Amino acid sequence: IVEIGVSIDRLQQCIEEIPRWCSSRRLQLNPTKTEVIWFGTSASLRKIKDIDLAVRVGNDVIRPVSVVRDLGVLLDQELSMKRHISKVTSTCFFQLRRLKQVRRILGPTVTAHLVSAFVTSRIDYCNAVLANLPQSTLAPLQRVQNAAARLIAGIGPRDHVTPVLQELHWLPVSYRITYKLCLLMHLVHIGRSPAYLSSLVSATSDLASRQALRSARSRRYEIPRTALKFGERAFSFAGPSAWNSLPTELHEQSDTKIFKKQLKSVLFARAYTL
Known about the structure:
By secondary structure, the chain is mostly helical. It contains eleven helices and four strands; from the N terminus they run H-H-E-E-E-E-H-H-H-H-H-H-H-H-H. The strands form two sheets. Strands 1-2 form a two-stranded antiparallel ribbon. It is globular and about 60 Å long. The model has no long low-confidence stretch (mean pLDDT 88).
């Protein structure tokens, strides 16, 4: 509780500087669009539920909320991502119902293009934040993808969808997340990623304690230890873990276009090879 009070004081001091900065540049902060959220485990959130966690922005008092939107991603207090997945699923099924009404007119090719624009693009948007979530949490998104494949192929809900996914060359949702992580790691590896992303991971060859080992000559990245399973969802863990699982020839590929093509082939084989 003492740490919470200190955190609120520090946050309040930072917030007080923002209106001054805006005012010096003839800008005005809009408190009505400002939101505050406290993240934590369910146990830690229960401990602070009776504490006043509001902060002041100018003359306005901002009360904490349970969900905020950041770049189109819904973040809940426990970072379970269930609210975000629920919203994406709801929106995608709405689009699929609209497309179903004109499916016979459009044909499979045009339907596939529209599904890509209105459905799969939403499934893939910022999907790296869904890394290492339980399969039960990702299941609604997989149901969306299955429904989209059935719509394109014109098959019923009881028909087996895996052959259709293979024919469309679609990776399952969990593998699409792995694809995004590996692509981000590839950009880090070739020096084309933002500094804030590359600073989160460390190549094994850069670690002084590993330079005398055989692994230092590889293009692998160090996977940090985590105290909790929750920590495995961080990019610093999920990114290197996905990258290290790739074949060596992919690590050595510097052409991004070729890397993406080879990466999809590798993940496609993993997804549909029993």
